[in-house]
Write a structure and sequence with these properties.
Layout (H helix, E strand, L loop, with lengths): L2 H26 L5 E4 L4 E4 L1 H7 L3 H4 L13 H12 L7 E6 L5 E12 L5 E10 L1 H19 L3 E6 L4 E4 L1 H7 L3 H4 L13 H12 L7 E6 L5 E12 L5 E10 L1 H92 L4 H28 L2 H6 L1 H16 L2 E6 L5 E2 L2 H22 L3 E8 L3 E8 L9 H6 L2 H10 L3 E6 L5 E8 H4 L2 E2 L1
Parallel strand pairs: 11-13
Antiparallel strand pairs: 1-2, 1-5, 3-4, 4-5, 6-7, 6-10, 8-9, 9-10, 12-17, 13-14, 14-16, 15-16
Length: 521
């Protein structure tokens, strides 16, 4: 074999091996690698280019590079191709390319010339690297920075040695230092002397990786003001997770603290006033209790005096009745005897007969009046036979005497007696009510009801007279209502009166059974 020919053949084999090796490297690269002619025709398209842009090598090779270039970037591509043709160097740059499905993607583009064996530039290779994640991270950082800078809370970051690394606008407003004045300075610039140990402890705990709970503290502004803040401290970690600093979110709570202090003072003042008022009320209550006790005793004394007065009245009624009966009775007997003598003498003297007869009628009427008054003053039947019999007798005699029809209705057992005090009170009520009918009512009928219920003994006296307005106090006093109420109170009774002009009058006395002390005869 010819030696030269053998050498040439060996060189061709080595060159083909190198090209195959390079092609394999390009095809397996994680970066998209695309080659093109100077007029922009795609000549190679590796697998990463397929993944990045969505076109297969079959779809891309032989097509114009504008296949993946948006319309607004075509001038950029024409300029790159022209500069390559002139032999100029193309520095890496960031741009935008378009995928098969129409999405725009951000790429970092490195463009290198392709030369032939003579060194002439015949095309270009482009390596577009997807930088969407980096752009997203940059956008996220920018967005977070904007959020931090526009926050209403002061947000400050610092290194673990206390050096300030960031300072937002709210921090400027809160503490009075601009970002230029604060960044690079020690955090102790805004910490009062009496709070420095607190900050040292916070930094030490951060270095140890301990959690810092939210707390309230005091900071100092540029003008020397002390600002009460609510502070939240969070660690800052690097890419490896190591704590390299801290961020602090400070919220001005000076007004809230002032409001709380004002509220606390107001609460204390209120408590003091309440205590004073309570003491005043206690004194008033004690004075009222003393007054009530005094009135209670006065009422008891008044009731006792009234009771004694009523008893004295009853005793006086009995005495007067007895005196009337004894003295006037004797005199009436003497008068009747005298009239009998005159009557015998008048037989022979006709001119005296009529006068004697008139005197006899007057004496008889006088005797009846005295008997009625004695009976009113001392109803012996009440003591002997009880309330029902006394009311029956009184109603009959009263009706005959005054010519007003009186009807008694009883719904209580006849074999039961009440206490002497209760029976006397009810009887006197009936007397007073019937006397009022005679004096004021102009009635022609009266109904008297005596009934025994499970809880009360009731007396009702109702007439069909002219009636009156019970709210007229003077009229009420004239009718004896005040005395009737006081009598009712002696036996814990309920006293009611119903009346209206032109509609008659109804008087009700309701005595509790416990007060009446019902007993069998």
């Amino acid at each position: 074999m010819d030696t030269k020919k053998a050498r040439a053949t060996g060189a061709d084999f080595r060159e083909r091996d190198v090209r195959a090796w390079l092609a394999a490297i390009i095809d397996s690269s994680d970066d998209a690698i695309v080659s093109k002619t100077l007029d922009g025709v795609i000549t190679s398209w590796n697998r990463s280019a397929e993944r990045l842009f969505g076109y297969s090598a079959t779809e891309a090779v032989g097509q114009s590079i504008y296949l993946i270039i948006p319309d607004d970037r075509r001038a950029e591509e024409a300029d790159v191709l022209a500069r390559l043709g002139n032999g100029e160097k193309i520095d890496p740059f960031e741009t935008v390319r378009r995928t098969k499905d129409g999405h725009r993607i951000a790429v970092s583009l490195t463009v290198s010339p392709i030369r032939d064996s003579r060194g002439t530039i015949i095309g270009a290779s482009a390596v577009p690297r997807d930088i969407r994640d980096r752009h997203q991270n940059d956008e996220l950082r920018a967005r977070l920075a904007a959020i931090v800078d526009s926050s209403d809370d002061a947000i400050v970051s610092k290194r673990l040695d206390g050096t300030i690394t960031s300072w937002n606008r709210s921090a400027e407003r809160l503490f009075g230092y601009s970002a230029a004045e604060a960044v690079g300075q020690s955090i102790f610039r805004i910490i009062p002397e009496d709070r420095r140990a607190e900050e040292v402890e916070v930094l030490s705990r951060l270095r140890r990786g301990e959690k810092i709970d939210h707390f309230e503290t005091v900071r100092q502004a540029k003008d020397g003001r002390r600002v009460t803040v609510s502070l939240t401290v969070s660690p800052i970690r690097d890419a490896k997770g190591t704590i390299v600093g801290a961020s602090k979110v400070a919220r001005d709570i000076t007004e809230r603290v002032r409001a709380q202090d004002a509220l606390r003072r107001a609460h204390e003042e209120l408590e003091e006033r309440v205590s004073e008022r309570t003491a005043d009320l206690s004194r008033l209550n004690e004075a009222l209790r003393v007054e009530i006790e005094h009135r209670r005793r006065a009422e008891e004394e008044r009731t006792e005096l009234f009771t004694r007065l009523v008893l004295a009245q009853e005793d006086e009624r009995r005495r007067i009745a007895r005196d009337l009966h004894d003295q006037l009775g004797q005199q009436m007997t003497a008068l009747r005897l005298t009239l009998e003598t005159l009557k015998a003498l008048a037989v022979e003297r006709p001119e005296l007969h009529t006068q004697v007869a008139t005197l006899e009628d007057l004496a008889r009427q006088l005797d009846q009046d005295i008997s009625f008054r004695v009976w009113e003053l001392r109803p012996a039947v009440l003591e002997g036979l009880g309330l029902a019999a006394a009311l029956t007798e009184y109603a009959g005699n009263w009706s005959k005497r005054f010519g007003i029809h009186a009807e008694l209705h009883m719904t209580r057992p006849a074999d039961e007696r009440l206490t002497s005090e209760t029976e006397t009170t009810i009887y006197r009520f009936a007397q007073e009510a019937l006397n009022n009918v005679v004096k004021h009512a102009r009635a022609n009928r009266v109904d008297i009801v005596l009934e025994q219920g499970p809880a009360h003994v009731s007396l009702i006296v109702e007439d069909n007279g002219i009636g009156f307005d019970p709210s007229t106090s003077a009229l009420g006093q004239g009718f004896g209502l005040t005395g009737m109420r006081e009598r009712a109170a002696l036996v814990d009774a309920d006293f009611q009166i119903e009346s209206a002009p032109g509609r008659g009058t109804m008087i009700l006395l309701r005595v509790p059974v416990t007060a009446a002390t019902v007993k069998s005869t």
